[in-house]
Amino acid sequence: MNESLFPKDFLWGGAIAANQAEGAYLDGGKGLTTVDTIPHGKDRLSVKLGIEKRFSLRDDEYYPSHVGIDFYHRYKEDIALMAEMGFTVFRTSIAWSRIYPNGDELTPNAEGIAFYRDMFAECKKYGIEPLVTLCHFDVPMHLVKEYGSWRNRKMVEFFTRYARTCFEAFDGLVKYWLTFNEINILLHSPYSGAGLVFEEGDNKEQVKYQATHHELLASALATKIAHEVNPENQVGCMLAGGNFYPYSCKPEDVWAALEKDRENLFFIDVQARGAYPSYTKRVFREKGITLEIEPGDDEILKNTVDFVSFSYYASRCASADMNDSNSNAANIVKSLKNPHIQASEWGWGIDPLGLRITMNMMYDRYQKPLFLVENGLGAKDVVNEQGEINDDYRISYLREHIKAMADAIDDGIPVMGYTSWGCIDLVAASTGEMSKRYGFVYVDRDDQGNGTLVRTRKKSFYWYKKVIASNGADLS
C-alpha cells in the first residue's frame, strides 16, 4: 500500500481503561468500584458473572486493579510516550467513583475533576484528542450495595448527573465521548459489565434486560446533555464487535448466527436508531421478560449517537447445536472454534477479513461513521538479553487488521479513527493477568503484582510510529 486510503484527518492512537491502568484505587478521594472487588485467580469468573457476591475485599486475595500500571501517578510519562509514537487520539475512561465516590452524591469530588483536567490538558499539550468513555466496566460499589446497580431505575439519575458533571468540567478539553464501553457485555459478564449480582429465584434474563433498558435510557439522556452543553460534542456508543458466522450452510446454523448477531447488536440498534427493534417483542416473550417501561421512555431513546464505535478482536461461529460443552471458553462471548483460522495464545480466532465484514455489516445497518476503538493481540512478551521485546507477532496481527480497515474505507465506509487496545501494557479485563500483554510499551509487572513498573518500548512501538507518520500507507 503506497498511497494511503485513510482520510487526512484520520485519528490514530491507542486505548486504555481507568480500571485496568490507573491503580491508586482509593487515592484522591476515589471510592471503591466493582472492578476493585474482582480478584485475580480461580474465583474471578464466578464474581464477574454475578454468581458470587463480593462486596468487600479479602486479605487472602490479590486485586490487580488496585495498582494497575500506576497510570494515575505516571500519566505524564505515559502520554509523552504516546506523543512520541505520534498519537492524534488517546482513548481512556473516567473512573465514575473518582468524580462521585459513592455515586449518589449531589456534589462531585474536586480532586477527581482536577486529576482528569490535568490529564486531558497533558494530552492537548501534544495535540492529542482525548476520546473518553464515561462508564468502562466500573460502577461505584455503594450503588451496587445500596440500589442493586443498573437493575434500579434510580441509576439513570445518578449516571446523567455524573455525565453532565463531566461534560461541563472537561468542556474545551474533550469533544469525543462514549457512554458505555462494550455495552453488550452486560449479557455475558453481568457483574463486571454492569454491577449486577443475582439473587436466588431471579429470572436472570429479566434482570439483565431491565438493567439494559436503564443503561439505554441513561446513554440517550447523556447524549442529549452532551449536545446541550456543547453542540460540538461528538457522542458514540460502543459495541463488543465481531460477527457470528454460521458454522455450516445448514439453514438452522444460519438462523442461529443471525440470532446471536442480533443479541449483540440489539443495544446499538437502540442507540443508533432510537427505538427497540421489531424482533425484540418475540425475543422478550420467549425469554419470559416483561420490561418496566415508563411513559416518555420511547421519546428519550430517540436521542441517538453521532457515531458507532466498537471493539474487534475476533470473529465468532454459531450453530443450532452450540452448547456449553462445545463452545470456546476462551472468550466471555461463547462461540464455536472456527477451523479455518488461526487462534491467539488465549484461544481468540485471528480473522482480519472478519473486521472488514463486521464494518460493512455495521455501516449497512446504521449509516453512521464508525470508530474502531479497540483492536489488538494479547500475547506473552519476552524481554531478551539485550532488553528488547521483539513482538513481530503483534506487528503482524495489527498490520493485517489495519489493511482490512483500509479495505473497509475503500468500500466507502466513513471511519473516524483507530485506537489499538492496551497501547501500553495493562491488566487484562478478562483474566486479570499482566502476562496477557497488548501494548507497544512493556510494563515491568507480573501476574502476582511484582515488578518495577518501568516502561520499555517494544519493536511494535517503532513500527506503529511509522504507520502513523505515513497515515497508514507504510505498514512494512
Automatic annotation (TrEMBL):
<keyword id="KW-0378">Hydrolase</keyword>
<dbReference type="InterPro" id="IPR001360">
    <property type="entry name" value="Glyco_hydro_1"/>
</dbReference>
<feature type="active site" description="Nucleophile">
    <location>
        <position position="374"/>
    </location>
</feature>
<dbReference type="InterPro" id="IPR017853">
    <property type="entry name" value="GH"/>
</dbReference>
<dbReference type="GO" id="GO:0008706">
    <property type="term" value="F:6-phospho-beta-glucosidase activity"/>
</dbReference>
<dbReference type="GO" id="GO:0016052">
    <property type="term" value="P:carbohydrate catabolic process"/>
</dbReference>
<keyword id="KW-0326">Glycosidase</keyword>
<dbReference type="Pfam" id="PF00232">
    <property type="entry name" value="Glyco_hydro_1"/>
</dbReference>
<protein>
    <submittedName>
        <fullName>6-phospho-beta-glucosidase</fullName>
        <ecNumber>3.2.1.-</ecNumber>
        <ecNumber>3.2.1.86</ecNumber>
    </submittedName>
</protein>
<dbReference type="InterPro" id="IPR018120">
    <property type="entry name" value="Glyco_hydro_1_AS"/>
</dbReference>
<comment type="similarity">
    <text>Belongs to the glycosyl hydrolase 1 family.</text>
</comment>
<dbReference type="InterPro" id="IPR033132">
    <property type="entry name" value="GH_1_N_CS"/>
</dbReference>
<dbReference type="GO" id="GO:0005829">
    <property type="term" value="C:cytosol"/>
</dbReference>
